[in-house]
Design a protein that fits this description.
alpha+beta; five-stranded antiparallel sheet; elongated; three-stranded antiparallel sheet; about 15% strand
C-alpha cells in the first residue's frame, strides 16, 4: 500500500501546489493590473501562468522523485526527462517574462513620446533585442538539454579539442549569416531604417513591415511583400522617405503647349491644393521649368504630412488640372503641329530672286563683276 500511496501523494501534492501557486500569482497580478492600469506589464505577465505552473510541478517532482518507489528501477531515465522538461519550462517562462517587459517598455514610451519617428526607432530596437534574447535563451536551453545526455559530454570534449579548426570552418560557412546579424544590429541602433518607414528599394515603393535579425520585409503599395536580407540596407543606397520626419514635398509635371495660360493654371492649382484634405498647409507653387520646340514643362509643387498624403495629393492635382485644361483651355494641351509653314515675306523673296538672277547670293552684289 505504501508503494502506491507515496507516488500518489507526491504527484497529487505537486499538482495541487503548482495550481495553487499559479492561481495565487494570477490573482496578485490581476490586482496589480487593476491598481496600475497605466502600465500593461502586470496584465502581460499573466500569460506566464502556465509555464510557471509547469516549472513548479516539474521542480517538485524532481525534488521528491527519490521518495517514490516507482522511480527506483528507472531513476536515471526519470531524472533525465524531468530535467529536460524543467529546462524547457524554465525557458518558456523566461521568454514570456521577456516579451512582457519589452511590450511594456514600448507601450510606455509610445504613450509619452510625441515624435513618431523616434517611436518607430524604439520599436525597431526593442523588436530586434527581443529576437536576439529569444535566440540566446533558445540556444542556452537547447545546449543545456543536450548536456543532460552522457554521450554529449564526450562529443563536447572532442569539439573543444578541435575548436580552432571548427571555428575557422564555421566562420567561413556562416559568413553571410553573421554579416546579416551585424547588419541587423547596425540597422536597429544606427537608425538607418525603422518599422513603419516608407522606403523605395529597387524601384519599389513600400512600407517596412518587419525587421528580423537576418531579413527585412517591405510591404508595397499593392500589398505585395518583398523580403530582403538586412545586409542590403547597409551595402546599397535606398530612399527612406520617413527619415528626419514624415513631411514631404511632391511634384507634378505637365507638358503643355506654348500658348498655355500659365497664370490661370497657377491660380487653378492653388484652388485644387487648398481644397484638398491631404495638403498640410505649408507651401505650394507652380513654375515653368523647361521648354522644347513643341512644348513647355510646367512643374507644380505641394507639401503633405506623410508619404501617403503626398501620393494622394499629387494624383488629385494631376487629375484636376488635366480635366480643367481639357474643359476650359483645350488649346493648351500638347499636340502635333500639322499646319503649313508661314510664307516668306515678299520683299525678302524679291531680293532673293534678283540675287539669283545676277549669279550671286541674295541681296549681296557679286564682287567679281565690275561696278
Amino acid at each position: 500500500m505504501e508503494n502506491v500511496l507515496r507516488p500518489l501523494i507526491v504527484f497529487g501534492g505537486a499538482i495541487v501546489l503548482a495550481f495553487a501557486v499559479g492561481w495565487a500569482m494570477d490573482r496578485a497580478l490581476r490586482r496589480m493590473d487593476a491598481r496600475h492600469p497605466e502600465t500593461p506589464l502586470w496584465g502581460l505577465l499573466r500569460s506566464g501562468r502556465v509555464p510557471l505552473q509547469a516549472v513548479v510541478f516539474v521542480g517538485l517532482l524532481n525534488a521528491f522523485s527519490d521518495e517514490t518507489h516507482l522511480a527506483r528501477d528507472h531513476q536515471k531515465t526519470v531524472d533525465l526527462w524531468l530535467n529536460l522538461i524543467l529546462i524547457g519550462a524554465t525557458a518558456w517562462l523566461v521568454l514570456r517574462a521577456l516579451t512582457a517587459v519589452v511590450e511594456t517598455a514600448y507601450s510606455r514610451y509610445a504613450g509619452v513620446a510625441h515624435d513618431a519617428a523616434r517611436v518607430r526607432r524604439v520599436r525597431t530596437q526593442l523588436t530586434l533585442v527581443r529576437r536576439l534574447a529569444t535566440a540566446l535563451v533558445t540556444v542556452i536551453a537547447g545546449a543545456s538539454m543536450l548536456l543532460q545526455f552522457p554521450a554529449m559530454e564526450k562529443l563536447g570534449a572532442s569539439m573543444l579539442a578541435s575548436a580552432g579548426v571548427l571555428g575557422i570552418v564555421a566562420g567561413i560557412a556562416a559568413q553571410s549569416t553573421l554579416g546579416n546579424l551585424f547588419a541587423g544590429l547596425q540597422i536597429a541602433f544606427g537608425d538607418m531604417v525603422r518599422i513603419g518607414d516608407t522606403v523605395i528599394v529597387d524601384g519599389e515603393w513600400g512600407t517596412v513591415e518587419e525587421i528580423t535579425i537576418s531579413y527585412l520585409v517591405v510591404r508595397t503599395w499593392d500589398e505585395r511583400r518583398i523580403t530582403m536580407p538586412v545586409s542590403y540596407f547597409t551595402s546599397k543606397p535606398f530612399e527612406n522617405w520617413s527619415r528626419g520626419g514624415a513631411q514631404m514635398t511632391g511634384t507634378v509635371l505637365l507638358h503643355l503647349d506654348h500658348s498655355a495660360p500659365v497664370a490661370e493654371i497657377r491660380r487653378r492649382t492653388e484652388e485644387i491644393v487648398r481644397a484638398s484634405d491631404a495638403w498640410d498647409g505649408r507651401s505650394w507653387g507652380l513654375v515653368v521649368v523647361d521648354t522644347t520646340p513643341t512644348t513647355i514643362q510646367v512643374r507644380a509643387t505641394m507639401t503633405a504630412r506623410n508619404a501617403d498624403d503626398i501620393w494622394t495629393l499629387r494624383c488629385e492635382v494631376r487629375e484636376e488640372l488635366i480635366a480643367w485644361l481639357h474643359r476650359e483651355h483645350p488649346y493648351a494641351l500638347p499636340r502635333v503641329t500639322t499646319a503649313p509653314a508661314a510664307p516668306e515675306p515678299p520683299a525678302r523673296a524679291d531680293a532673293g530672286a534678283a540675287g539669283r538672277a545676277d549669279g550671286g547670293r541674295p541681296g549681296i552684289p557679286d564682287a567679281r563683276k565690275p561696278g
